[in-house]
Amino acid sequence: MWGSFGAVWAMTLLGAHAGMGWPAAIGLLLVALVAAMLVSGGVALVVERVAYRRLREKNAPPLVALISAIGASFMLSEIMGLRDRIAGWLNLDGVLAPYVRQARENTAFVNPLPNVQVLEVAGFQIRSNQLIVLVAAIVMMIALDQFVRRSRLGRGVRAVSQNPEAAALMGVNQKRVVQLTFFIGGLMAGAAALLYLVHIGVTRYNVGFILGIKAFTAAVLGGIGNIRGALVGGLVLGLAENYATFFGLASSWKDVVSFLLLIVVLLFRPTGILGESLGKARA
Protein backbone atom coordinates (compact mmCIF):
# COMPACT_ATOMS: atom_id res chain seq x y z
CA MET A 1 0.00 0.00 0.00
CA TRP A 2 2.78 2.45 0.86
CA GLY A 3 4.55 1.38 -2.32
CA SER A 4 1.52 2.37 -4.39
CA PHE A 5 1.66 5.89 -2.97
CA GLY A 6 5.39 6.00 -3.66
CA ALA A 7 4.64 5.23 -7.31
CA VAL A 8 1.80 7.79 -7.49
CA TRP A 9 3.93 10.55 -6.01
CA ALA A 10 6.91 9.69 -8.23
CA MET A 11 4.75 9.96 -11.35
CA THR A 12 3.26 13.24 -10.10
CA LEU A 13 6.65 14.80 -9.40
CA LEU A 14 7.90 13.72 -12.84
CA GLY A 15 4.90 15.29 -14.58
CA ALA A 16 3.48 12.11 -16.09
CA HIS A 17 0.33 12.42 -18.19
CA ALA A 18 -1.80 10.18 -20.38
CA GLY A 19 -0.91 9.91 -24.03
CA MET A 20 2.88 10.05 -23.70
CA GLY A 21 4.98 8.13 -26.20
CA TRP A 22 6.03 4.60 -25.38
CA PRO A 23 9.75 5.32 -24.65
CA ALA A 24 8.98 8.17 -22.24
CA ALA A 25 6.09 6.28 -20.65
CA ILE A 26 8.18 3.15 -20.06
CA GLY A 27 10.98 5.26 -18.57
CA LEU A 28 8.58 6.94 -16.15
CA LEU A 29 7.06 3.60 -15.16
CA LEU A 30 10.52 2.22 -14.42
CA VAL A 31 11.20 5.20 -12.15
CA ALA A 32 7.83 4.64 -10.46
CA LEU A 33 8.73 0.96 -10.08
CA VAL A 34 11.99 1.80 -8.31
CA ALA A 35 10.18 4.29 -6.05
CA ALA A 36 7.46 1.79 -5.13
CA MET A 37 9.97 -0.98 -4.44
CA LEU A 38 12.26 1.18 -2.30
CA VAL A 39 9.36 2.57 -0.26
CA SER A 40 7.91 -0.89 0.35
CA GLY A 41 11.32 -2.38 1.08
CA GLY A 42 12.08 0.35 3.60
CA VAL A 43 8.72 -0.07 5.32
CA ALA A 44 9.26 -3.84 5.46
CA LEU A 45 12.59 -3.35 7.25
CA VAL A 46 10.94 -1.05 9.80
CA VAL A 47 8.13 -3.55 10.39
CA GLU A 48 10.65 -6.36 10.88
CA ARG A 49 12.55 -4.29 13.42
CA VAL A 50 9.51 -3.02 15.34
CA ALA A 51 6.89 -5.75 15.07
CA TYR A 52 8.80 -9.02 14.64
CA ARG A 53 12.36 -9.03 15.92
CA ARG A 54 11.63 -8.98 19.65
CA LEU A 55 9.02 -11.69 19.20
CA ARG A 56 11.47 -13.85 17.29
CA GLU A 57 14.20 -13.34 19.89
CA LYS A 58 11.77 -14.44 22.62
CA ASN A 59 10.57 -17.46 20.59
CA ALA A 60 6.99 -16.20 20.62
CA PRO A 61 4.34 -18.54 19.15
CA PRO A 62 3.49 -18.03 15.46
CA LEU A 63 0.01 -16.80 16.41
CA VAL A 64 1.55 -13.89 18.31
CA ALA A 65 3.57 -12.92 15.24
CA LEU A 66 0.41 -13.07 13.12
CA ILE A 67 -1.42 -10.76 15.54
CA SER A 68 1.55 -8.39 15.48
CA ALA A 69 1.46 -8.40 11.67
CA ILE A 70 -2.24 -7.51 11.64
CA GLY A 71 -1.61 -4.71 14.12
CA ALA A 72 1.26 -3.35 12.02
CA SER A 73 -0.98 -3.43 8.94
CA PHE A 74 -3.66 -1.37 10.69
CA MET A 75 -1.04 1.07 11.96
CA LEU A 76 0.49 1.64 8.52
CA SER A 77 -2.94 2.08 6.93
CA GLU A 78 -4.03 4.66 9.49
CA ILE A 79 -0.77 6.60 9.23
CA MET A 80 -1.37 6.95 5.48
CA GLY A 81 -5.02 7.79 6.17
CA LEU A 82 -3.94 10.64 8.46
CA ARG A 83 -1.36 12.07 6.08
CA ASP A 84 -3.44 15.24 5.66
CA ARG A 85 -3.05 16.03 9.36
CA ILE A 86 0.62 15.02 9.34
CA ALA A 87 1.22 17.31 6.37
CA GLY A 88 -0.52 20.12 8.24
CA TRP A 89 1.77 19.69 11.21
CA LEU A 90 4.81 19.75 8.90
CA ASN A 91 3.46 22.61 6.72
CA LEU A 92 3.86 20.56 3.55
CA ASP A 93 2.64 22.11 0.32
CA GLY A 94 3.44 22.12 -3.38
CA VAL A 95 2.75 19.72 -6.20
CA LEU A 96 1.82 16.86 -3.84
CA ALA A 97 -0.64 18.99 -1.84
CA PRO A 98 -3.80 17.57 -3.54
CA TYR A 99 -2.69 14.02 -2.77
CA VAL A 100 -1.89 14.89 0.82
CA ARG A 101 -5.31 16.48 1.37
CA GLN A 102 -7.23 13.50 -0.04
CA ALA A 103 -6.06 11.30 2.79
CA ARG A 104 -9.06 8.98 3.06
CA GLU A 105 -10.24 9.18 -0.55
CA ASN A 106 -9.19 7.31 -3.68
CA THR A 107 -5.94 8.61 -5.15
CA ALA A 108 -5.66 8.37 -8.93
CA PHE A 109 -2.59 7.01 -10.69
CA VAL A 110 -1.62 8.64 -13.97
CA ASN A 111 -0.76 5.79 -16.33
CA PRO A 112 1.18 7.21 -19.29
CA LEU A 113 0.86 4.00 -21.32
CA PRO A 114 -1.96 3.77 -23.87
CA ASN A 115 -4.34 0.96 -22.92
CA VAL A 116 -5.03 -0.61 -26.32
CA GLN A 117 -6.16 -4.05 -27.41
CA VAL A 118 -3.18 -6.23 -28.32
CA LEU A 119 -4.59 -9.77 -28.44
CA GLU A 120 -7.84 -11.67 -28.77
CA VAL A 121 -7.96 -15.23 -27.46
CA ALA A 122 -11.12 -17.34 -27.80
CA GLY A 123 -13.22 -14.21 -28.06
CA PHE A 124 -11.62 -12.54 -25.04
CA GLN A 125 -9.89 -9.22 -25.66
CA ILE A 126 -6.56 -8.68 -23.91
CA ARG A 127 -5.46 -5.08 -23.51
CA SER A 128 -1.91 -3.80 -23.15
CA ASN A 129 -2.21 -3.07 -19.42
CA GLN A 130 -3.48 -6.59 -18.75
CA LEU A 131 -0.65 -8.09 -20.80
CA ILE A 132 1.95 -6.02 -18.91
CA VAL A 133 0.60 -7.22 -15.57
CA LEU A 134 0.48 -10.85 -16.71
CA VAL A 135 4.00 -10.93 -18.15
CA ALA A 136 5.50 -9.03 -15.19
CA ALA A 137 3.80 -11.34 -12.68
CA ILE A 138 5.13 -14.45 -14.46
CA VAL A 139 8.67 -13.02 -14.60
CA MET A 140 8.56 -12.06 -10.91
CA MET A 141 7.31 -15.49 -9.85
CA ILE A 142 9.96 -17.35 -11.87
CA ALA A 143 12.71 -15.04 -10.58
CA LEU A 144 11.62 -15.48 -6.96
CA ASP A 145 11.32 -19.25 -7.30
CA GLN A 146 14.79 -19.58 -8.84
CA PHE A 147 16.27 -17.19 -6.28
CA VAL A 148 14.97 -19.25 -3.35
CA ARG A 149 15.97 -22.56 -4.92
CA ARG A 150 19.36 -21.78 -6.42
CA SER A 151 21.01 -18.76 -4.80
CA ARG A 152 23.14 -18.92 -1.67
CA LEU A 153 20.87 -16.48 0.15
CA GLY A 154 17.82 -18.46 -0.99
CA ARG A 155 19.26 -21.63 0.51
CA GLY A 156 19.92 -19.67 3.69
CA VAL A 157 16.29 -18.54 3.74
CA ARG A 158 15.09 -22.12 3.42
CA ALA A 159 17.50 -23.30 6.10
CA VAL A 160 16.38 -20.65 8.59
CA SER A 161 12.74 -21.38 7.77
CA GLN A 162 13.10 -25.11 8.34
CA ASN A 163 15.43 -25.17 11.34
CA PRO A 164 16.86 -21.87 12.68
CA GLU A 165 19.07 -23.54 15.27
CA ALA A 166 20.69 -25.94 12.80
CA ALA A 167 21.15 -23.10 10.30
CA ALA A 168 22.95 -21.03 12.94
CA LEU A 169 25.25 -23.97 13.72
CA MET A 170 26.09 -24.19 10.01
CA GLY A 171 27.20 -20.55 9.99
CA VAL A 172 24.06 -18.90 8.62
CA ASN A 173 23.53 -15.39 10.00
CA GLN A 174 19.89 -15.75 11.00
CA LYS A 175 19.34 -12.06 11.76
CA ARG A 176 20.75 -10.97 8.40
CA VAL A 177 18.77 -13.59 6.49
CA VAL A 178 15.50 -12.53 8.12
CA GLN A 179 16.20 -8.85 7.42
CA LEU A 180 17.00 -9.54 3.78
CA THR A 181 13.91 -11.74 3.47
CA PHE A 182 11.71 -8.91 4.71
CA PHE A 183 13.45 -6.45 2.40
CA ILE A 184 13.06 -8.70 -0.65
CA GLY A 185 9.43 -9.29 0.27
CA GLY A 186 8.98 -5.53 0.46
CA LEU A 187 10.58 -5.08 -2.96
CA MET A 188 8.21 -7.65 -4.44
CA ALA A 189 5.24 -5.97 -2.75
CA GLY A 190 6.30 -2.63 -4.24
CA ALA A 191 6.47 -4.13 -7.72
CA ALA A 192 3.04 -5.70 -7.18
CA ALA A 193 1.70 -2.31 -6.06
CA LEU A 194 2.74 -0.73 -9.35
CA LEU A 195 1.15 -3.56 -11.32
CA TYR A 196 -2.04 -3.03 -9.31
CA LEU A 197 -1.99 0.65 -10.21
CA VAL A 198 -1.40 -0.08 -13.90
CA HIS A 199 -4.44 -2.35 -13.93
CA ILE A 200 -6.84 -0.62 -11.48
CA GLY A 201 -5.72 3.01 -11.78
CA VAL A 202 -6.38 4.16 -8.20
CA THR A 203 -5.08 3.45 -4.72
CA ARG A 204 -6.40 4.10 -1.24
CA TYR A 205 -4.92 4.37 2.24
CA ASN A 206 -6.33 0.98 3.33
CA VAL A 207 -6.15 -0.89 0.03
CA GLY A 208 -3.32 -3.09 1.25
CA PHE A 209 -5.30 -4.72 4.05
CA ILE A 210 -7.80 -6.67 1.95
CA LEU A 211 -5.13 -7.44 -0.65
CA GLY A 212 -2.87 -8.72 2.13
CA ILE A 213 -5.62 -10.96 3.48
CA LYS A 214 -6.18 -12.34 -0.02
CA ALA A 215 -2.45 -12.94 -0.45
CA PHE A 216 -2.49 -14.89 2.82
CA THR A 217 -5.55 -16.79 1.56
CA ALA A 218 -3.71 -17.70 -1.66
CA ALA A 219 -0.70 -18.86 0.37
CA VAL A 220 -2.90 -21.06 2.56
CA LEU A 221 -4.72 -22.47 -0.47
CA GLY A 222 -1.45 -23.39 -2.15
CA GLY A 223 0.38 -24.44 0.99
CA ILE A 224 2.24 -22.27 3.48
CA GLY A 225 5.96 -22.17 2.73
CA ASN A 226 5.62 -23.21 -0.91
CA ILE A 227 6.19 -20.49 -3.53
CA ARG A 228 4.77 -22.55 -6.37
CA GLY A 229 1.85 -23.43 -4.15
CA ALA A 230 1.19 -19.73 -3.61
CA LEU A 231 1.02 -19.32 -7.40
CA VAL A 232 -1.48 -22.17 -7.66
CA GLY A 233 -3.45 -20.77 -4.73
CA GLY A 234 -3.60 -17.35 -6.36
CA LEU A 235 -4.88 -18.84 -9.61
CA VAL A 236 -7.52 -20.88 -7.78
CA LEU A 237 -8.61 -17.81 -5.81
CA GLY A 238 -8.83 -15.63 -8.91
CA LEU A 239 -10.77 -18.25 -10.86
CA ALA A 240 -13.18 -18.79 -7.96
CA GLU A 241 -13.90 -15.06 -7.66
CA ASN A 242 -14.44 -14.53 -11.36
CA TYR A 243 -16.46 -17.68 -12.00
CA ALA A 244 -18.74 -16.70 -9.11
CA THR A 245 -19.40 -13.43 -10.93
CA PHE A 246 -19.82 -15.25 -14.24
CA PHE A 247 -22.50 -17.50 -12.73
CA GLY A 248 -24.63 -14.64 -11.48
CA LEU A 249 -23.22 -13.34 -8.20
CA ALA A 250 -22.65 -9.60 -7.96
CA SER A 251 -19.02 -8.46 -7.93
CA SER A 252 -19.51 -7.30 -4.33
CA TRP A 253 -19.64 -10.99 -3.36
CA LYS A 254 -16.06 -11.65 -4.49
CA ASP A 255 -14.60 -11.25 -1.01
CA VAL A 256 -17.25 -13.56 0.44
CA VAL A 257 -16.35 -16.24 -2.11
CA SER A 258 -12.63 -15.85 -1.33
CA PHE A 259 -12.95 -16.28 2.40
CA LEU A 260 -15.55 -19.04 2.09
CA LEU A 261 -13.04 -20.91 -0.07
CA LEU A 262 -10.40 -20.35 2.62
CA ILE A 263 -12.68 -21.82 5.30
CA VAL A 264 -13.46 -24.87 3.15
CA VAL A 265 -9.77 -25.54 2.49
CA LEU A 266 -8.86 -25.17 6.17
CA LEU A 267 -11.63 -27.60 7.12
CA PHE A 268 -10.96 -30.32 4.55
CA ARG A 269 -7.33 -29.84 3.46
CA PRO A 270 -5.44 -27.71 6.00
CA THR A 271 -2.12 -28.54 4.31
CA GLY A 272 -3.19 -26.61 1.21
CA ILE A 273 -2.88 -27.87 -2.34
CA LEU A 274 0.91 -28.33 -2.41
CA GLY A 275 2.00 -27.53 1.13
CA GLU A 276 2.78 -29.16 4.43
CA SER A 277 0.86 -28.95 7.67
CA LEU A 278 0.18 -25.42 8.87
CA GLY A 279 1.29 -26.42 12.32
CA LYS A 280 4.72 -27.44 11.03
CA ALA A 281 5.29 -24.90 8.28
CA ARG A 282 7.42 -21.85 8.91
CA ALA A 283 7.27 -19.02 6.43
Write down the secondary-structure element order. Answer: HHHHHEEEHHHHEHHH
Overall 3D geometry? globular
Instruction: Give the strand tally.
Output: 4
Number of helices: 12
Q: Total domains, how many? A: 2
Our measurement of the CA-to-CA distance between the termini, rounded to an integer number of angstroms, reads 21 Å
Radius of gyration: 20 Å
Give the % helix.
over 70%
Description of the molecule:
The protein has 283 residues and is mostly helical. The protein folds into two domains: 1-204, no CATH class; 205-274, no CATH class. The protein is 70% helix and 5% strand. It has twelve helices and four strands. Strands 1-4 form a two-stranded antiparallel sheet. The protein has a two-stranded antiparallel sheet with strand order 2-3. Helix 1 crosses helix 9 (174-200), helix 2 packs across helix 3 and helix 11 (227-246) crosses helix 12. The protein is globular. One of its GO terms (cellular component) is plasma membrane.
Descriptive keywords:
283 residues, two-stranded antiparallel ribbon, two-stranded antiparallel sheet, 4 strands
Give a quick summary of the entry.
By secondary structure, the chain is mostly helical.
Detail the topology: elements first, then pairings:
Layout: H1 2-13, H2 22-57, H3 62-81, H4 83-90, H5 97-101, E1 107-108, E2 117-121, E3 124-127, H6 128-150, H7 152-162, H8 164-169, H9 174-200, E4 202-203, H10 207-222, H11 227-246, H12 254-268
Antiparallel strand pairs: 1-4, 2-3
Helix pairs in contact: 1-2, 1-9, 2-3, 2-9, 6-7, 6-9, 7-9, 10-11, 10-12, 11-12
